[in-house]
Amino acid sequence: MKKEFPRMAKAVKNQVTDNYYRPDLTKAALATLSAVHRSLKVAKSGVKKRNRQALKVRGRK
């Protein structure tokens, strides 16, 4: 399943509920899908942007 997440979730939900196979497991199936989707997410590569706002230095006058 290489679609966007809402389409994958709809497909999983339809598979569980429409086939009359344990409709009480819908939430568990969606939680598993969510965990797998999160684990397969690739971290962004490259240089991380720094915060360029001026920092307040405390204690100086």
Automatic annotation (TrEMBL):
One of its GO terms (biological process) is translation. One of its GO terms (molecular function) is structural constituent of ribosome. One of its GO terms (cellular component) is ribosome. This is Ribosomal L28e/Mak16 domain-containing protein. It comes from Gossypium darwinii.
